[in-house]
Amino acid sequence: MKISTNYLIMDSVEVEKAKVYITVEIIEYIPNAVVIKTILKKSTGNVSVMSFDSGEGLIEQTTPFDTFAQIIEGSAEIVISGKSNLLVTGQSIVIPAHTANHIKANGRFKMIATVIKSGFE
Fold first, then answer.
1. What is the DSSP letter of 23?
2. In the predicted model, is pLDDT for residue 12 greater than 80?
3. 2 pLDDT band (50/70/90 cuts)?
4. Can you name the CATH fold of 7-116?
């Protein structure tokens, strides 16, 4: 797996509120890149939509917050504490806080990542 060093973070401004969106169309694929677009960003957490080109991935990481990952197009391998989980369109998983994880793209896919921050963790 190639770990992407080409992250394209689209403008960090949230999407327009009170407007209807087709989530999968908010973001496009860019060759050899992982693209991230902020939907909502608050001190209590954030919601982002991401696209991964085939063969791209995210380096193993551990975060202090739970992350709810939802696949909205394609399929992805999400590895949590060494256990591989293959998710397809419509499936989701909670990545627990303080747990090593990484994401692999065997083909192009898009996902929504929702991070909920808590002042008690």
1. G
2. no
3. very low
4. Jelly Rolls (2.60.120)
Q: Where are the domains of the chain?
A: 7-116
E-strand spans in the chain? 7-9, 34-42, 45-52, 57-61, 66-80, 83-88, 92-95, 101-104, 109-116
| Phi, psi of 77, deg, nearest 5 | -105, 120
The rounded distance, in Å, linking the Cα atoms of 67 and 22 is 22
Q: Is 9 exposed, middle or buried (0-12, 13-18, 19+ CB in 10 A)?
A: exposed
> Do the beta carbons of residue 79 and residue 72 sit within 8 Å?
no
DSSP SS3 for 15? coil
Residues 6+ apart with CB under 8 A from 106: 54, 55, 75, 76, 77
Task: Give residue 119's pLDDT.
Answer: 60
The pTM score is 0.86
Q: How many Cβ atoms are within 10 Å of 62's Cβ, its own excluded?
A: 12
Distances in whole angstroms, Cα of residue 110 to Cα of each of 15, 99, 103: 17, 22, 12
